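Render this sequence as a predicted structure.
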Amino acid sequence: MEHLLAKATAEIVNDLYQQDFSPEKVNIQKTRTDVEGDFTIVVFPFTRFSRKGPEPTATEIGEALKNKIDFISGFNVIKGFLNVSLSESFWTDFLKKEAVNDAYGYSDAAKNDAPIVIEYSSPNTNKPLHLGHIRNNLIGDSVARILKANGHNVAKVNLVNDRGIHICKSMLAWQKWGEGETPESAGMKGDHLIGKYYVIFDQEYKKEIQQLVSEGMAEDKAKKEAPLLKEAQQMLKKWEQSDGEVMALWNKMNGWVYEGFDVTYNRMGVSFDKVYHESQTYLLGKEIVLRGLENGILFKKEDGSVWADLSDEGLDEKLLLRADGTSVYMTQDLGTADLRHSDYHPKEMVYVVGNEQIYHFDVLKKLLKKLGFDWSEKVKHLSYGMVELPEGKMKSREGTVVDADNLMDEMFLAAKETTTELGKIEGLSEDQANELFEMIGQGALKYFILKVDPKKTMTFNPQESIDLNGNTGPFIQYTHARIQSVLRKAAEKDLDGNFEGTLTLHEREKILIKRLYNFPNVVSQAAETYSPALMANYVYELVKEYNQFYHDVPILKTEDQNLLGMRLQLSAFTAKIISKTMGLLGVEVPNKM
């Protein structure tokens, strides 16, 4: 409708004032809720053509629009704003057409287009996934869904951080204190077991630091000279030299972790089209760096370390290879980016990574450009704020992180307690009830995290997220179940959602239809901004409008069968859009609750 109004307005301006004004320049907005009208046209830019004041110009254009477009029922002018009202036939025709259109709001997939590659998750194989990973995974998965809904070809990838000093710390601790413990013997998921030894390393390392300090060594020096750290560094060197014993231990422990990750991913409902491993890409990065050194783009310091001078880019010098020849994260990212571009030749490469890495990705783009990769501008960093708990930040080395698996268990139990207390499981078998508890728990977790703009730091409150009232996933899920209950009762009475002709709409019906009409615009905006929060806030406003409609307008008790059919169709359409929108957030909605 906005495009039609813009085109018609531009034509009218050109006819009335002999101008060549393009539709793209016409500013059209949704009319404010306290003003009568559906769309508002900003008229101020046209006054220089009309040589009249804003109000007479708006009136002149409004009259012409009413004559030009049949379904404009009227207009009003407030200063330089032309508020246009659409006829009820427009809204009822829209409802009839789109309520049965399963593709409504989505664009056809362009399968032959270059893909948008989106990387998310990026776990380390020295610890299980935690609450911060949950936000990362949920944002990445939802953005991928939203991009697909807009017709983009999307490739979802994961980069597993499976090498480095932190991995060796867990390996060394297990070697020293594990006594052959396995996930089976410990009764633990593999990623949890390895995380346990990462914490043990940190505890023992701190003991050694304290011992050295007590013997008179400065703390900074003690951190570097602690025997455990030196052993871990030696293990990393052996790994890079493909030492048989170290590689065997590495493969075994990483295998445990991957099995654990898969369980978590499956429960969370996220997946990947391709998984990259740093162990397979860091050498590619070293090749790129050495080539850059050979070509005089990079330089070597006296100790043998290799650097990039980015002062001409407004940055400083950046280390790429240490003096001992080992690589840093930036080196690995260069290799991974090049490999990924070769694999996909993408339209964009989107990295879902926390905002503490903004500088890192700024450097990555500039380095790629400096090294001659003409696709460097395709690199996009979708940064997000940290997620905290009411009691504060988490620290993985100290074992104070909120484990993803434990949190999902807690959400299940909270959903079970809340739902059972409210009597929402009557008539359900045990399996059906457990399926409902999982659906509500996951919905509460995902919605609470995704409703916050990705760029903002957020506090996750488990109890607040599970509430059946307010801006929560369970509140939206309950509204969907409520609508399905209405539709089931209608079906039992052989009532359907068909209606004929144009009906006089109740104010609540029109508000709800207009909200549904805006769904495609929100889907498009969410893709443009990479923001699932737009979808979350849209569906919350939609369910609020439906609940107000449900409260103010009779549905099943409506005597006029034509009006009853329209209200049933409006309810079914609302349920469909709730399900679609929540689906873009990775959230399922129940039919009974």
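Summary. The two ends are 37 Å apart (CA to CA). Residues 160-272 form one domain.
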